[in-house]
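My current task is to audit a protein record that another person submitted. Thanks in advance; the entry in question is below:
***
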Amino acid sequence: MRCCDVEALWDEMREGVEPRREHVLAHLRRCRTCQELYAQFEGVAYCLSCLPIVEPPNSLVPRILEHIKTVRATYLKPDALARVTSPLGSLLVAWREARITFLGIERGDFEAECAHIERRLRRPIVAAEPPEWVIKAVRNWFRTWQIDPQFVDISNLTEFERAALSKAAEIPPGEVRSYGWIAREIGHPHAARAVGQAMARNPVALFFPCHRVVATNGELHNYGYGVEIKARILRMEGYVKT
């Protein structure tokens, strides 16, 4: 079962908006789908509450704390961010180690965009000069309209999002496919809307070509940088709408 309102609420939470308790309760009172899910999980919670309490071994807490320390050290290490010129204008490219973690078209408010990138990656970024391999990766994409996946890191996305974006990368340059096509190809035939959300959350635009994903009727539908930019990129790739 799915609930579009809850999916929208989840999108807001991912962007840092904290829902108010009364809104959640009001939705629960009127949504039968969520009521049924709540009843199921309430039953699971009750069963778990009936289990006997087991004391953890003394060695567990130090191991957990050490793991958290290691994860935090890795997680909070900032990504580098730089401007790279392109035929579409200035691009913002973030990377860590030898893989690109974010790519987007600069829209003018650099500080706001940096804050958006940090929220998207869930870790800090620091300004840097782009290394030659980053510049070369961008130039090669505008020459071949493809990217070697080894240069891109989308490991912070969900399994479903990674599958959807990876399938989008299989669409040949100059061609388009529908959200429903991707949903079917990745084994979730009824998840076209979720595919659309995965495209909207794409942190590496262009390289994972969400611009090649359109509505079932061929309409370009939405694009984070505007439908006009989506149409322009497709024209650059040689797409002709039939």
Notes: The chain is about 50% helix and 10% strand. Strands lie at 79-86, 89-96, 99-105, 125-127, 177-178, 213-214. The radius of gyration is 21 Å.
